[in-house]
Specification:
alpha/beta; 130 residues; Transcription Regulator spoIIAA; globular; 5-stranded mixed sheet
Length: 130
């Protein structure tokens, strides 16, 4: 699977990493898997695309659908953060579009950000949620 993740229950953090060529199906399978674990609801999440080297069928429509699907699993009474690490300009731009789509949904209850480096992303995660 091009997306793997580890869960740190002590810090309530999901750390995911995508690699190789990824597509819409990979993103939805990952989100479905995360959603299937109620204990993870409300955890912070870091999604790292540093090792991605191609996109199969990811487009604006797919990003909108994914944003709506992900937002439907947000926990309204618990502030959490979702950060994407995207060093490459094309993935950074697509990630910012996803961030915009996600933040524009009324049922979205997560703080989102996109950074070029893992260090920046981890620093942001350590800051208190607004």
């Amino acid at each position: 699977m091009p997306i793997t993740y580890q869960v740190d229950h002590a810090h309530q953090l999901i750390a995911a990493e995508a690699s190789g060529a990824i597509g819409e199906r990979d993103l939805f399978v990952y989100q479905t898997d995360i959603n299937s674990h109620p204990a993870l609801a409300g955890y912070d999440e870091i999604f790292d695309v540093t090792r991605v080297d191609g996109l199969l069928d990811i487009n604006i429509q797919n990003l909108r659908k994914l944003a709506a699907f992900a937002a439907a699993s947000d926990v309204p009474d618990k502030l959490s953060k979702f950060v994407i690490v995207a060093p490459q300009d094309v993935y950074f731009g697509l990630s910012r579009m996803y961030e915009s789509f996600r933040e524009g949904l009324p049922r979205s209850h997560r703080e989102l950000a996109v950074f070029h480096s893992r260090a920046e992303a981890e620093g942001w995660l350590r800051e208190p949620a607004e």
